[in-house]
């Protein structure tokens, strides 16, 4: 008897341990799910812009452009350089302080020092225009960076909506499977009671198996789309990355009330890709001006101060009729000197380098102008296509909703007939499959329409948002 009680107690303890372990696992899973961040579209866009590697590279280019601007400012300022030389000579030498030759094996120590400064007074305004160019280049790099951010925002929005679409389709597949399970259970009971033939059960089982496969495929699509979005955000923890579980309806929008030409004209005023192309034209014009400046003379001002010392220096007049031998400090003051002036260089012939440089600059200017016109044409084409897409996908979505409603009514009617034995399982499965396809098509066209709508609004200057 005691052994039976002990065995019973051990079983109770074992079950309690298993129960506690199960509760801890469930709690841990719930806690992990609660801690997992659910990303909104706005958060995804902001994170992608802040962490994209290409953006970081473009930001470094922008920093380089700012340094170029600092270089151009420095070219307008005078330079200042100091110099010092110390040497010993053995044998024949010329004393640096008196220019007197010294022969024999005498060793002399000489030292020279001073500083000099140069400034460009005029060089065909190339230094001034180089500063203007550096400022324009910094602005152009900023436009290029902002244009890249616009592209990333659109790519993230597209990937985000793809996850939403796949998730909503997966929910639909699971809901459809739940209904089929009820039909399968009821059909089994009817088959067992001999009311319907076994073939009807097999048909329902085939439908259930097909829906299970749809669920598996849907889960795979959700996972793949989540990974794609995470990669755009430079996030590698794919398992713990997910977006907010929300269902979005088509947001209200009056964008189609604006003609495509109005949207295009507004886009020209703020689109960063157009601003970047316009900046490239201005840069090319400035390069042409700089190249032409080489035809003009260059005027440079200079100032130099120097002094010297030599231990071979002899006696020098003291200013009162006598002489004395100057020491180190005295020589620095006695033998110092200043020179200043200006130098003019007039270009006459340099092997056609300047002429060819001007020709290349003209070609680059024409190329930049053509690229600007091409970018405008591309923008107009993209806006026209986006405008047509919005109208087309709106109609496609409305048609999909009407089809879905019709398929749903037909399914309800078929289900009523199937329940009373007036329709076989094959025809009922066909009605259910048509409903499933209509629901999937409605979801797909809805998110296709939302994305096209957001693209057109983005061209109009509206921020990306699903509100």
From TrEMBL:
Keyword set includes GTP-binding: no
Pfam families reported for this sequence: OEP (PF02321)
Keyword Protease: no
Source species taxonomy: Bacteria, Pseudomonadati, Bacteroidota, Flavobacteriia, Flavobacteriales
Position of the signal peptide: none
GO cellular component, one term: efflux pump complex
Molecular function GO terms recorded: efflux transmembrane transporter activity; porin activity
Cited Gene3D superfamilies: Outer membrane efflux proteins (OEP)
Name recorded for this polypeptide: Putative outer membrane transport/efflux protein
